[in-house]
Design goal:
The complex is a heterodimer. In chain A, about 60% of the residues lie in helices and about 5% in strands. Chain A is mainly alpha-helical. In chain A, the strands form two sheets. Chain A has a three-stranded antiparallel beta sheet with strand order 4-1-5. Chain A has a two-stranded parallel sheet with strand order 2-3. In chain A, helix 1 crosses helix 2. Chain A is elongated. By secondary structure, chain B is mainly alpha-helical. The model of chain B has no long low-confidence stretch (mean pLDDT about 90). Classes of the chains: A mainly alpha, B mainly alpha. At the A-B interface, loops of A face helix 4 of B.
Chain lengths: ~230, ~80
């Protein structure tokens, strides 16, 4: 009973991930059709994924010194680019800056939304594959070569997909900033491998290890097929 | 038609449960109840589709049919 509940939760998660992809396509960064529909549609979409429904790309940046000086009172706000050397503990406001791109071009929308859709569809595949794994366990036959392949696929998607998505996002942000009117006023933080989602790589490696164990289990199961 | 397990697995062991059941006047269902395994598994054994047999199963079958292992299983000549 519990495994059936888990299976259906995973299937629901997969459907929601596909729905998120659809919202990206229909939202303001896609075709904009959500905004032409009734309010209830827009609100439902925003509750599922507000960024997909009505967001614009927001690029984390560090503004040029002159921009900082023009906009911020340095007596009250901490500028991390200047460093600090003060005795004792103290507190100041700290700002994080983002460049928001409004009214992106069709090409910018396609690239940005495409990456988000790729993420959503990948997540949908992950949840659906996990659901099938749970379903096979519920049927009493989990140790099959097919499940070993599923675990291997999950592992590869997580090991490669997580860092790939992070790198892809950084590259797109760099491009969007470079072609924007603020290209000379802000810089994107250089790519650092510390920014990669290493949890995804770690979980993916665990999945690959499990896939090997499952493969061995499937072989042992085959040895017992037909045992009376 | 699916080939028997002996062809798939490369062995020539055949099961004589059919003959023994007829000789003892016993049905497969009755034997399954006495041996303590499912009718499905007994049917797999009877139809030469089993790939391996537990010693405990063989012992129970021989006790139920009052016979020896060689009466239940034999190796078909080449």
């Amino acid at each position: 009973m519990a495994s059936r509940g888990v299976e259906w939760l995973l299937r629901v998660a997969a459907v929601l991930s596909v729905a998120t992809c659809l919202i990206w396509v229909l939202g303001s960064m896609g075709t904009g059709l959500i905004f032409k529909g009734p309010d209830s549609v827009r609100y439902a979409a925003q509750s599922l994924d507000g960024n997909a429904a009505g967001g614009s790309p927001a690029i984390p940046v560090q503004p040029e010194e002159r921009v900082w000086e023009d906009l911020v009172d340095e007596d009250t706000v901490f500028n991390s680019s200047q460093g600090y050397n003060v005795p004792g503990a103290f507190a100041e406001f700290s700002l994080s800056w983002r460049v928001v791109v409004y009214e992106p071009t069709l090409g910018q929308r396609v690239v940005y939304t495409g990456l988000q859709c790729l993420l959503s569809l990948s997540l949908a595949w992950v949840w659906w594959t996990l659901a099938r794994l749970v379903a096979s366990s519920r049927r009493g036959d989990p140790f099959t070569a097919e499940n070993a392949m599923r675990l291997q696929g999950l592992g590869l998607v997580l090991v490669v997909g997580g860092p790939a998505y992070a790198v892809g996002t950084w590259l797109i942000h760099r491009w969007l900033l470079a072609v924007s009117e603020l290209a000379d006023d802000a810089t994107l933080a250089p790519w650092s491998w510390r920014d990669a989602p290493w949890w995804s790589v770690a979980v993916g490696l665990c999945m690959l290890v499990l896939a090997g164990v499952w493969r061995r289990g499937a072989a042992m199961r085959d040895d017992l097929v037909g045992l009376v | 038609m699916t080939p028997p397990a002996e062809v798939e697995e490369g062995h020539r062991v055949v099961c004589h449960l059919d003959d023994l059941l007829v000789a003892r006047g016993m049905t497969l269902t009755e034997l399954a109840e006495q041996v303590g395994i499912t009718i499905v598994n007994l049917s797999v054994l009877k139809n030469d589709r089993a790939r391996s047999v537990r010693f405990s199963t063989l012992t129970a079958i021989c006790d139920a049919l009052d016979c020896e292992v060689g009466d239940v299983l034999s190796v078909r000549p080449r």
